[in-house]
Design brief:
The complex is a heterodimer.
Chain A (H helix, E strand, L loop, with lengths): L3 E4 L2 E4 L5 E7 L5 E8 L3 E10 L2 E4 L6 E3 L9 E3 L8 E8 L11 E2 L3 E5 L1
Parallel strand pairs in A: 2-11
Antiparallel strand pairs in A: 1-3, 3-8, 4-5, 4-9, 5-6, 7-8, 9-10, 9-11
Chain B lengths: L3 E3 L4 E4 L4 E7 L6 E7 L6 E6 L4 E3 L2 E6 L4 E6 L8 E8 L7 E3 L3 E6 L1
Parallel strand pairs in B: 2-11
Antiparallel strand pairs in B: 1-3, 3-8, 4-5, 4-9, 6-7, 7-8, 9-10, 9-11
The chains are: A mainly beta, B mainly beta.
């Protein structure tokens, strides 16, 4: 199993550009999520999905869109990049998002994004 | 108030030492608790889940105190390879399946 994969590993954008960060998992996990990690802030949830066709907002969703057309893929779209979106982005998946079940998360290697 | 709070450290300990980290959470309805390890510029990796009765995995012991709303991680006989940032994570049904991360505690084990 490849686990959780993310592409690209690094990306530089100009303000106003759009792009999609890719995330895929081959573990048949229902729950997938996107986080951003900034110094001193910890990981903050952007969007998450409890299954194909279902997405919901996390703590910091503004400026980002997601979709979940398949169980395996969960892309994150930056609509109009801003310098405040410079961060490290992690995708994660788990068998379930329900507390008390098999909900330990597995993370992808991250995408380091710089917006100029 | 943050959902999860950790002492950021840094903790600098000699090899062979025992070190303990605590993490407090604000939502009394939280049900799942984890410790993750994150190496510099890498993704977080699950270290261990934390169960109500406490659990041990080799040199690592995790405890949960629901009354005081904190979880702890004890590392015995520290190795150089234990140097990393340790993240506390909490999840609960009433938070809409969202996971909340602490900012992490930095550990450096010194030869």
């Amino acid at each position: 199993n490849a686990g959780v994969t993310q592409t690209p590993k690094f990306q530089v954008l100009k303000t106003g550009q759009s792009m999609t960060l890719q995330c895929a998992q081959d573990m048949n996990h229902e729950y997938m999520s996107w986080y951003r990690q900034d110094p001193g802030m910890g990981l903050r949830l952007i969007h998450y999905s409890v299954g194909a066709g279902i997405t919901d907002q996390g703590e910091v969703p503004n400026g980002y869109n997601v979709s979940r057309s398949t169980t395996e893929d969960f892309p994150l779209r930056l609509l109009s990049a801003a310098p405040s979106q410079t961060s490290v982005y992690f995708c994660a998946s788990s068998y379930s998002g329900l507390a008390g079940s098999r909900n330990e998360q597995f993370f992808g290697p991250g995408t380091r994004l710089t917006v100029l | 108030r943050k959902e999860v709070e950790q002492d950021p450290g840094p903790f600098n300990v000699p090899e062979g030492a025992t070190v303990a980290f605590n993490c407090t959470y604000s939502n009394s309805a939280s049900q799942s608790f984890f410790w993750y390890r994150q190496d510099c510029r890498k993704e977080p990796k699950l270290l261990m889940s934390v169960y109500s009765s406490g659990n041990e995995d080799g040199r690592f012991t995790a405890q949960l105190n629901r009354a005081s709303q904190y979880i702890s991680l004890l590392i015995r006989d520290s190795k150089l390879s234990d140097s990393a940032t340790y993240l506390c994570v909490v999840n609960g049904r009433d938070t809409g399946n969202q996971f909340y991360f602490g900012t992490g505690t930095s550990l450096t084990v010194i030869p």
